[in-house]
């Protein structure tokens, strides 16, 4: 699992070389590749839902575009977040909220809800 976390950080970091992830990808076995892509696809699904909510909010509140986009940006701000600190908090959160989505759990952990 640590390898998956490291690879995710490498894949989402700004890279100097266009093909830099290809060499990392080759190091993964089939199961690791599937786990990595499963997480990535879940992130895309969550981002799509958040984008749809944002579009609806901005349509209903056209005078609050700047505020709405700042709020959206804050949702994705994970600067300084470390998996080693987040995972135990998610474990605790899911004990009482087993039906929550990952995005709900991460928001709750991030904002202390």
Low-confidence stretches: none
User: Number of helical segments?
Assistant: 6
- Compute the CA-based radius of gyration: 17 Å
Order of helices and strands: HHHHHH
Helix and strand content put the structural class at mainly alpha
Q: How far do the termini sit from each other?
A: 27 Å
β-strand percent reads: under 5%
> Percent range for helical residues?
over 70%
Got a strand count?
0
Characterize the overall form.
globular
Largest sheet: none
What's the average pLDDT?
82
Structure description:
- With 113 residues, this protein is mainly alpha-helical.
- Helix 3 runs antiparallel to helix 4 (65-75).
- The two termini are 27 Å apart.
- The chain is built from six helices and no strands.
- The longest helix has 31 residues, at 30-60.
Highlighted features:
73% helix, mainly alpha, 113 residues
Set out the fold topology.
Blueprint: H1 2-12, H2 20-25, H3 30-60, H4 65-75, H5 83-96, H6 102-111
Helix pairs in contact: 1-3, 3-4, 5-6
Summarize the structure.
The protein is mainly alpha-helical and 113 residues long.
């Amino acid at each position: 699992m640590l390898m998956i976390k490291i690879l995710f950080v490498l894949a989402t970091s700004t890279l100097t070389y266009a093909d830099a992830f290809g060499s990392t990808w080759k190091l993964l076995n089939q199961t690791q590749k599937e786990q990595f892509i499963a997480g990535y696809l879940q992130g895309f699904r969550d981002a799509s839902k958040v984008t749809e909510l944002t579009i609806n909010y901005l349509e209903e509140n056209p005078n609050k575009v700047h505020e709405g986009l700042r709020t959206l940006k804050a949702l994705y701000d994970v600067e300084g977040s470390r998996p080693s600190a987040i995972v135990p908090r998610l474990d605790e959160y899911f004990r009482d909220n087993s039906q929550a989505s990952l995005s709900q759990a991460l928001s709750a952990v991030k904002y202390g809800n």
